[in-house]
Amino acid sequence: MDSWVRFSSQSQAKERVFRAAQYACTLLGYTLQKNGASNELVASIKQLEAHLSLGRKLFRLGNSTDAIESAKRAIHLSDVVLRFCITVSHLNRAMYFACDNILWAGKTVLSRDMDQDKWSQRSFRYYLFSLIMNLSRDLYEIKGTLLMEVETSGKHSRLNAENEAVLPGDDPPYHALQTQLYLILNILRNNPPVLLDVLKNTCDIFIPLDKLGLYKTNPCFIGLCGLTSSILSILTIVYPWLKLKP
Questions:
Q1: CA of 179: how far to CAs of 150, 174, 186, 219, in Å?
Q2: Helices and strands (DSSP H and E) totals, the chain
Q3: 170, 199 in Cβ contact below 8 A?
Q4: Residue among 53, 42, 4 at smallest CA distance from 230
Q5: How distant is the alpha carbon of residue 189 from its chain centre?
Q6: Measuring CA to CA, which residue among 40, 41, 84, 90 is closest to residue 64?
Q7: For a pLDDT cut of 70, what percent of the chain falls above it?
Q8: For the chain, first and last CA: distance in Å?
Q9: Assuming Cys at both sites, which of 44, 45, 92, 220 could form a disulfide with 30, CB separation 3.0 to 4.6 Å?
């Protein structure tokens, strides 16, 4: 119950719920259309999706300030790679939220004559670069843990090498690749925050790639990716220990 109270009190959590509902509508609308549903029903789903998108933008008003404050904290990290990836990611998120706020103004009575397509493209470019930085950070986390695992397993291998003969059919490069894949899977299994962050960022990155025309998919795939990443984000809010730190 305490987790639910904390979850409900955060605007970020509400925005995540709206996001999950929005992409669920994207997925549902595409599925209904493909299965021959009436035009009225499909139009209603798309209208609900548009309202949810506008509601999300309202919840994100002021998030640029939070992103800038996060960047200020990240710039003091001792690890150079983490400092760069996290700081640049937050700065791009700040610009993404700023463009998003302008889009919100354009979709209300405040500024209907603005070029919404231009600001939408800018918004998704900042969003894409932020996700690239997030994935780079994830890979750095995995690589660091992998090096420690390899070093540890290497010591055990050297201890056992004297007692094991190399079989004629052995393929050392294939065996080394197999070992690395096993270690990576083991790292992700034993580190849920990294696993969730990788899955969330991987799902999210297809959204700006599609919107910018860099990798076109379809509304069904985008809806599934957005819904999945939203659910993973909600999990990190309900259970803070699942959120990757710093």
A1: 9, 9, 10, 38
A2: 9, 0
A3: no
A4: 53
A5: 18
A6: 90
A7: 85
A8: 27
A9: 220
